[in-house]
Design brief:
Layout: E1 17-20, E2 26-29, H1 32-42, H2 49-62, H3 68-81
Helix pairs in contact: 1-2, 2-3
């Protein structure tokens, strides 16, 4: 009998990015998939050039076209440009 094992492979950055959202909750972004979700659904600011670059880089990382850490760098730059406050990592 053959069993199917459901395995989820999630791309993670070496260090997550923690942001404080407008609702005063911390938001922990652990990799490019989380970043794409945040950029597309929760981005609180105007969509700038760095926002577009971060989105492109995160999609490229998920598609295995660039290293995962390159997407993190682009996401951090977009967050800094948007003046998002860095949050505390939840314990």
């Amino acid at each position: 009998m053959h069993n199917v094992i459901d395995v989820e492979f999630k791309m993670l950055w070496s260090m997550p990015v923690c942001l404080a959202t407008s609702s005063r909750d911390n938001c922990l972004i652990q990799g490019p998939e989380d970043a794409i979700h945040f950029l597309s659904r929760r981005w609180p600011c105007e969509r700038s050039t760095s926002y577009a670059r971060a989105t492109e880089r995160c999609i490229a990382a998920v598609s295995h076209k660039i290293p995962v850490e390159a997407s993190r760098a682009a996401f951090v730059i977009a967050c800094l440009d948007a003046r998002l406050m860095p949050g505390r990592r939840p314990s």
